[in-house]
Write a sequence for this structure.
């Protein structure tokens, strides 16, 4: 039936009132899908809680590690995450919380995606955007920058809060020192990418528990497991593991066996892109 | 308008929808009927592109669903399973859908009011009763002011007032020239709302008919006539299109003539009748007879169960 004829017949109805703006302007666009995903993200309590936990952990662990630092007892603040270790510096202490915050932020990404499959919301989402891919891009484009900005602010706060505790120590640094801002921002970029990684895993596996297990496995367990490889292989491959490449992004001093910050960023972003590509294929090819 | 052509869906070696063709026309309510597991929900999921057909195709207003610029304006859907995040409020849920199409907030408020959800719009959907969930589903189906409204078991969980509301709503949507499709496994309920019937079983088309035709055919249960002069009445009524059977000396079961015609013949020839009763078959019985061979989970007759026990 021609749309105009239908429109005319629809005039003056009581059951479904005529929309006051012209439906002719209804159209799905990338920006609108982004707006929708933005609203969806902030309208869930779990988003606020998980995001809050990530920032809280980042700031708290960093501040505690810095304020309890003493040059004799090395690396007391929590388990030796990436960046902590033998020769601490003020930045690595401030970023002690990254290894925990990455889980919170990764879970946030997983929930944003796999949570829709668990609840059935995905059917509403994909019925509204049947081309599907814009939904994946929009989810990544919402969570990535949100996590990046908040994690960068968290890293800055952790560093600033830790500075008084290191006052007078040999390793004390200030924000203006060489590489400090780059490292702190690097932590933000890394965590932003981890959130996107979580979205990709969530869409790929469609199951929150499975995707969280995969996230933990890839970021935390894989490097340890890989040490079972022959030494020569391990030395060659380990800098390219997702979490090792990622920690190179926010390390103040480039370790001898690690990538440069730029190379680390490129490699980790490559892993995220790979996961996103897998998620895109699964999203388009498989029934919702 | 929805046009399904030789639609087929297989999961592994199980064929859920089998070579199904039907049309849902504007201005009509089409009832989509079948026993549980007949493939109704799968068919509806294929219509809105959630599932891809193994073979065949289905178009919505002439195009496959995903090719529309504003899909929610073409067809509004309520799918059987809950398709809502329980942690979000009804208003936020509808806003999220509205944003994708640039549908203004005013329209969201309109459908919330239409569905009678104004007082609970700010509540988390997880706390909703089944009936409120259905109302929210219907609100989201109407959000885009769609030309087609497709509802999977819309009256599930609704109270009698809600059932009547849905019935009137669907009727008025169809009267406005929209195409309405609703699925159900209850014939009697559907016959009250629908004009057209598409009946399926085990994924195959069993009947594509109108409610009027279906009712007429279902009414073909014959007329019971009780008279002392059975032999005379038999010969008076005899015709090629009339069949007459008898179960007792004074009783005839006549098919091919309705009660009015039999009564007229009897009076013209002075045959006294003691009883003249149309043997109407209920719609539900007719539906069950039609789908009897294809129900997925058949209950054993009561007496065999007793023997087994």
């Amino acid at each position: 039936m021609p749309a105009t004829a239908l429109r005319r017949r629809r005039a003056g109805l009581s059951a479904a009132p005529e929309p006051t703006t012209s439906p002719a302007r209804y159209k799905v666009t990338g920006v609108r899908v982004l707006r929708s995903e933005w609203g969806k993200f902030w309208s869930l309590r779990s988003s606020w809680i998980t995001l809050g936990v990530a920032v809280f952990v980042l700031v708290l662990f960093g501040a505690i590690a810095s304020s309890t630092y003493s040059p004799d007892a090395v690396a007391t603040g929590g388990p030796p995450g990436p960046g902590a270790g033998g020769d601490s510096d003020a930045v690595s202490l401030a970023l002690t919380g990254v290894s925990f915050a990455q889980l919170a932020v990764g879970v946030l990404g997983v929930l944003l995606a796999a949570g829709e499959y668990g609840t059935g919301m995905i059917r509403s989402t994909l019925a509204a955007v049947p081309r599907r891919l814009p939904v994946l891009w929009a989810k990544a484009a919402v969570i990535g920058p949100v996590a990046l900005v908040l994690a960068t602010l968290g890293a800055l706060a952790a560093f600033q809060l830790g500075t008084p505790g290191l006052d007078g120590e040999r390793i004390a640094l200030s924000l203006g020192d060489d590489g400090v801002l780059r490292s702190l921002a690097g932590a933000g970029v890394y965590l932003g990418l981890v959130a996107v990684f979580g979205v990709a895993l969530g869409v790929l596996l469609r199951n929150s528990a499975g995707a969280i297990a995969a996230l933990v496995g890839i970021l935390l367990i894989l490097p340890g497991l890989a040490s079972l490889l022959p030494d020569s292989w391990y030395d060659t491959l380990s800098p390219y593991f997702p979490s090792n490449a990622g920690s190179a992004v926010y390390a103040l001093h480039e370790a001898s066996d690690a990538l440069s910050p730029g190379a680390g960023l490129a490699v980790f972003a490559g892993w995220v892109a790979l996961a996103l590509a897998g998620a895109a294929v699964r999203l388009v090819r498989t029934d919702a | 308008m929805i046009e399904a052509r030789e639609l087929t869906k297989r999961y592994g070696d199980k064929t859920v929808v089998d070579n199904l063709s039907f049309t849902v026309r504007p201005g009509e309510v089409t009832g989509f009927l079948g026993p549980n597991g007949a493939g109704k929900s799968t068919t509806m999921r294929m219509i809105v592109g959630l599932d891809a057909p193994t073979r065949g195709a289905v178009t919505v207003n002439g195009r496959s669903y995903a090719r529309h610029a504003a899909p929610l304006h073409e067809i509004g859907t309520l799918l059987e399973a809950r398709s809502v995040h329980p942690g979000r409020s009804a208003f936020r849920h509808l806003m999220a859908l509205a944003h994708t199409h640039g549908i203004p907030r005013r329209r969201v408020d309109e459908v919330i009011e239409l569905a009678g959800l104004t007082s609970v719009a700010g509540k988390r959907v997880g706390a909703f009763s089944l009936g409120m969930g259905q109302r929210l589903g219907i609100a989201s189906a109407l959000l885009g002011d769609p030309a087609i409204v497709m509802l999977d078991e819309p009256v599930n969980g609704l109270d009698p007032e809600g059932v009547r509301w849905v019935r009137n709503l669907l009727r008025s949507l169809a009267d406005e020239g929209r195409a309405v499709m609703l699925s159900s496994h209850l014939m009697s309920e559907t016959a009250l709302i629908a004009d057209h019937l598409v009946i399926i079983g085990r994924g195959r088309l069993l009947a594509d008919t109108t409610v009027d035709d279906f009712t007429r055919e279902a009414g073909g249960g014959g007329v019971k006539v009780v008279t002392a002069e059975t032999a005379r009445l038999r010969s008076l009524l005899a015709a090629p299109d009339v069949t007459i059977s008898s179960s007792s000396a004074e009783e005839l079961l006549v098919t091919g003539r309705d009660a009015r015609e039999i009564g007229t013949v009897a009076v013209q020839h002075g045959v006294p009748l003691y009883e003249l009763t149309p043997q109407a078959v209920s719609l539900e019985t007719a539906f069950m007879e039609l789908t009897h061979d294809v129900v997925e989970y058949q209950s054993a007759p009561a007496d065999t169960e007793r023997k087994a026990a």
